[in-house]
């Protein structure tokens, strides 16, 4: 049976005027942080196919993923729906290898035989070591080998689970003189069949109702850890949790007297959050921050920045904002507004939802 779509080689793809096509990138959002094609529409394969109908049909469509397996399946679906569609043979990895060869005159080997790369994660606290490993391997070709050294006890368990869930191979794990050493090989395998409904629902959803510093830190540590495992993560902020997203500086917006009163009484931004226990008029929060810094734990502000950088979705409840008199201009960058449907939609694609 002939394919209902056409194939484009990396060489042909490189010569195209991308403005004449609709490019559909099936990779995960965190992969695009370090390797993306400008103008491409990102529809992650792991999110199912509900958004395929949003692809405009006024131009020929070119679908690509990391190595080409997923794009063929999506191309069949689009062709059945009447699109003129092609797939990029070998996916983005083949295109990247071609452009690298043009730039340097040397092709990128798919299975490099070289010394193990080294990642120094000593002194980092959870989820720092896992995030550092994930960031390094994300755009590396299959077969890449890496040796990681960490000093946090939890890393021994975390790296085993991370490798199991991401499909990468843990070749060696050892603990000596307080240093945990893990040797990992980037997996050559990629899913070759459509995921079942259960497999698609592996996202993580957090509802942050509290505005307490300690609870917020816990939420973002778990969110960053899930993002490092390649999971879709949504944090839904409602009521007192909205104060976490407020800009620290005062923003001039028109408010009613009641809204102004709410704004005056509530903390503005993460630096003003107190502890849920032993806050002691704010002294407790300062003590916790000092201890975290001394122990090498990322600050809340650093955890939030990492979460945004790794594609964690921060959603502010519009209804709660209206009740509490918080305007969108007062929120930090990287936050989107949503309602109960946004939360429920995320929850239905998650196998874990936590209310904090």
Features of the shown structure:
356 residues; 5-stranded parallel β-sheet; Hypothetical Protein Ychn, Chain: A; alpha/beta; 19% strand; Translation Initiation Factor IF3; Oxidized Rhodanese, domain 1; 12 helices; 3 domains
SSE layout and pairing:
Elements: E1 6-8, H1 10-15, E2 22-25, E3 41-42, E4 61-64, H2 69-80, E5 85-88, H3 91-104, E6 117-121, H4 128-137, E7 145-150, H5 154-166, E8 169-176, E9 179-185, H6 197-200, E10 203-208, H7 213-228, E11 233-237, H8 257-265, H9 283-295, H10 300-309, E12 313-317, H11 318-324, E13 335-338, H12 340-348, E14 350-355
Give a brief description.
The chain is an alpha/beta fold and 356 residues long.
- Poorly predicted parts: 103-113, 190-199
| Count of discrete domains | 3
Name the CATH homologous superfamily of the largest domain: DsrEFH-like
Q: On the 0-100 scale, what is the average pLDDT?
A: 84
Helix content: 25-40%
The CATH topology of the largest domain: Hypothetical Protein Ychn, Chain: A
Count the DSSP helices. 12
Q: How would the global form be characterised?
A: flat
Find the count of extended strands (DSSP E, 2+ residues).
14
How far apart lie the N and C ends?
A: 53 Å
């Amino acid at each position: 049976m002939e394919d209902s779509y056409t194939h484009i080689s990396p060489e042909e793809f490189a010569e195209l005027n991308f403005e004449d096509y609709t490019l559909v990138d099936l990779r995960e959002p965190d992969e695009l942080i370090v390797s993306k094609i400008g103008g491409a529409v990102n529809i992650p394969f792991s999110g199912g196919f509900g958004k395929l109908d949003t692809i405009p049909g006024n131009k020929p469509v070119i679908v690509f993923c990391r190595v080409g397996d997923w794009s063929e399946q999506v191309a069949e679906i689009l062709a059945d729906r009447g699109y003129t569609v092609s797939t990029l043979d070998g996916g983005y990895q083949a295109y990247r290898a071609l452009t690298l060869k043009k730039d340097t005159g040397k092709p990128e080997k798919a299975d490099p035989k070289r010394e193990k790369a080294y990642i120094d994660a000593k002194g980092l606290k959870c989820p720092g070591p896992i995030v550092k490993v994930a960031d390094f391997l994300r755009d590396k070709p299959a077969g890449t080998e890496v040796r990681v050294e960490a000093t946090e006890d939890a890393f021994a368990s975390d790296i085993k689970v991370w490798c199991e869930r991401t499909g990468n191979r843990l070749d060696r794990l050892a603990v000596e003189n307080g240093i945990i050493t893990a040797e990992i090989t980037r997996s050559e395998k990629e899913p070759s069949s459509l995921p079942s409904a259960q497999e698609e629902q592996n996202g993580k959803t957090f509802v942050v109702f509290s505005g307490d510093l300690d609870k917020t830190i816990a939420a973002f540590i778990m969110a960053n850890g899930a993002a490092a495992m390649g999971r879709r993560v949504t944090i839904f902020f409602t009521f007192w949790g909205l104060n976490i997203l407020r800009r620290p500086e005062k923003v001039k917006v028109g408010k009613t007297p009641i809204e102004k009163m709410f704004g005056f009484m509530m903390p503005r931004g993460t630096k003003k959050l107190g502890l849920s226990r032993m806050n002691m008029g704010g002294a407790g929060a300062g003590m916790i921050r000092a201890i975290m810094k001394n122990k090498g734990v990322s600050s809340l502000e650093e955890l939030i920045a990492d979460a945004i950088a790794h594609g964690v979705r921060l959603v502010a409840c519009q209804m709660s904002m209206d009740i509490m008199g918080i305007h969108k201009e007062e929120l930090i960058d990287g936050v989107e507004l949503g309602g109960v449907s946004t939360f429920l939609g995320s929850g239905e694609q998650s196998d874990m939802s936590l209310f904090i």
